[in-house]
User: Fold these one by one.
Assistant:
Number 1:
Amino acid sequence: MIRKTLLLLGLLFFIPHSAISEIVVKNSWVRAAPDGSKTMAAYMLIENQSSKIMSSSKIIVNGFEKAEVHMSFIENNIAQMRKLENISINGKESLTLEPGGLHLMLINPEKVPKKNSKVEILIFFENVSDGEVVRIEAEVRSQE
Amino acid sequence: MIETKNKLFLIFAIIVLVFMTLIIQKGPVLNEKQPILQSGKALKKPLEIIDFQLIDQKNQLFTKNDLKDHFTLLFFGYTNCPDVCPSTIYKLSQMKKKINKDLPEKNLEIVFITLDPERDTTNRLHEYMNFFDSTMIGLTGDISEIVKLSANLSVFFQRINKEDGYDFNHTASIFIINQEAQLGASLSPISSLEMLEEDIKILLTK
């Protein structure tokens, strides 16, 4: 029993930071911001390794009032931002969230997280067979 | 007689050809004064900046005179902008380090002007500038002064109200101000760091 528990714990330890095999999240990070900031942005690469469309309209970020999917774009040198209702990724495709484009906007932090700390992000996918939440620990850092 | 006519025609044709060649060649000669940039446009004639009065993050008055005798990269934004503004600040901060190392005599300065003086107080700008690059100058002040200066530089901005606050759509161009406090060029913020660096060096050394 103890051996089994240890084995399970060991397995949990080695599970990648996004735990659902059909969705793999890589290179996640939150842009460090000064104290007093009301909004922050999170970026990542989300790979849909299944052959089905995966979509999510619910994202929870620990320590923030809410999170929304936003798209920044610059048209005729005018920076604009549009809120998206969900993220949707075709089968065997990936979605890049990066500076100046698609990003998670993290709104109203309880306390602005410091550089090098981790922010827990939960993305609820509506079409995953063996679970429904992708858990990410995104590091807070400056742009590089 | 006919031969003389032919000779005259030949001479005339040669003169026309020489002129045409000169005219064609003159184009690029004139263009030399107008640097060709990868990331934006240089103005044919620099634009005089109007007088203005704003306050920097150290609570000091900042006017047009403070733009003189050095080059400045100037842009507009707001500190609650989570994505585009910090990306531009990051690029400009990197650029400032590189250019001031290669061309120290130009004393390149970076100025950020808020479009949101309601939330961006001097204290907030102090915190913001210190976080990204304390050598950058952050300006706030009376909204009428900000509107006046943004109109002078053809900067568009529009407040977008949301259920829990507001954002801005705004011109995100990087403006290059010369030593006489005149607008010399505007560059696109989506250009790569390398392209921007190359263009800024061209403008600073022309």
Number 2:
Amino acid sequence: MPGRQKADDVPGTFEYIIWFVGALLEASVVVCSLLRGPFRRYFTLNLYMSTSVLVSVGRYLVFSRHGWTSPEYTYFYYYSDAILTICLYFALMGLYAIVFEELKATMPLRVFMMLLLIGTALFSYSVVHQSESRMLTHYVVEISQNLYFVGLILTYVLWAALLKLRESRVRVIQIVLSLGVYFSINAANYALHNAYPNLRVIWEYLPPAAGMFLPIAWIYAFMRFDDEARLAPGRLAVVPR
Amino acid sequence: MSRISTAVLLAMLVLAGAMGLKTVVTTHGDGSVLMANGTAPVPPTPWRNGTAPVPPTPWKNGTAPVPPTPWNGTAPVPPTPW
């Protein structure tokens, strides 16, 4: 396996490079967003990316001080992952607000998203409340997992809404599609991991690859397209003369 | 009001769909956790320290069948003697 020291199975050079490049790409999303102007409009996306950069720095500090298998790094990793998943949920909320802004459906949308968040939190609690030890940790991991799958469904719903509303803003389409691909890769990878545990080479490297794909796709969306850029109509209506 | 009710219904539908999808994806899972945010190396699951087999629970001594509880019936359960 590239860069991995097999003896004690600790992250090697390859993992460090992926980690560093990933954090750099996430920071680049925020910088590109600031440079091109849509920082406030896509604030929740930038909030997610900024938090991700900060979390990466924090993880590195804890990792370098305590080591990979230390309880400190383990707990920091899982608790910070829950925070990131909640930020990702808010990023989705922001995308919904942008897509549905012309329908004047802000209030029902907020009610919908907040109810879903509360419902997920309660459901997660109902799953773990009988845990006798480390209940908070179980809860944090459970809510992170559940929110992840809620996010996956919400992204597909948003994708369907884009098609239904005939959305033509290229930047919005690019961001939503890349988010859908990102969620799908991770979910498929997790299912693959469970079905074929021997294919470690694949399931171990897909999540970092997806983690790098998302900021690259968003950088492309911010740098390549303006907010007003529209898709050219696929076919023009033929007017009979 | 109807729009709010629709939002509530949709929220419940999405939650049910997401949990159903999670169940499908994790059906044959080994208890590992799906971690997707960032590119940092994933540490072991916090409640899976080591790979040793899990010992039996301490209050199940032996493999003999468990005797019936002494308070059959519907009478109120007395306080524990200790």
